[in-house]
Design a protein that fits this description.
Strand order of the largest sheet: 1-2-5-4-3
Number of helices: 4
CATH architecture: 2-Layer Sandwich
Oligomer: single chain
Shape: globular
Number of strands: 5
Order of helices and strands: HHEHEHEEE
Radius of gyration: 16 Å
Structural class: alpha+beta
CATH topology: Beta Polymerase, domain 2
């Protein structure tokens, strides 16, 4: 199912764009799918911040490599990680997902580029999505919805 979503996203863009742009388009798609899951789940209290937030929420013309979130209070990173992993592996029928956790950083590797004709045998087959979590600092900030 996730391959179909990515193929659909590429259909129009493939006619005029190069591989680099297409890979970024797919990374953007995977980030949006991760955000959709997070904000439609029990994790919706996470505070989205950083470069990807500026691009997605405020139209900044850049692609950040990761999704950055703050959390307040108690937060079980292990449970969050398992929920995101399960979402992509089972809900999107993508059992080939590779993943790794390093403290509060979650790395998801999607081996899809060759199947989508965006990588040769000598190039990496993987698109990466990194989620970075950190405890919110005590400060006066405004949460926008």
């Amino acid at each position: 199912m996730i391959i179909k979503i990515l193929e659909n996203r590429l259909t129009e863009a493939k006619k005029t764009a190069g591989k680099g742009f297409l890979r970024n388009l797919l990374k953007d798609t995977l980030q949006l799918l991760a955000l959709e899951f997070i904000y439609n789940s029990r994790w919706s209290n996470l505070i989205f911040k950083g470069g990807s937030c500026l691009r997605i929420c405020h139209g900044l013309n850049r692609l950040s490599e990761d999704l950055d979130f703050d959390y307040e209070g108690e937060f079980d990173v292990s449970v969050f990680f398992e929920d995101v992993k399960t979402h992509f592996m089972k809900d999107f029928y993508f059992p080939n997902l590779e993943f790794r956790r390093v403290k509060e950083r979650l790395y998801f590797k999607f081996p899809v580029l060759r199947q989508l004709a965006l990588a040769t045998s000598s190039e990496s087959d993987k698109l990466y999505v990194k989620i970075e979590l950190s405890r919110a600092e005590k400060c006066n900030y405004k949460i926008e919805l």
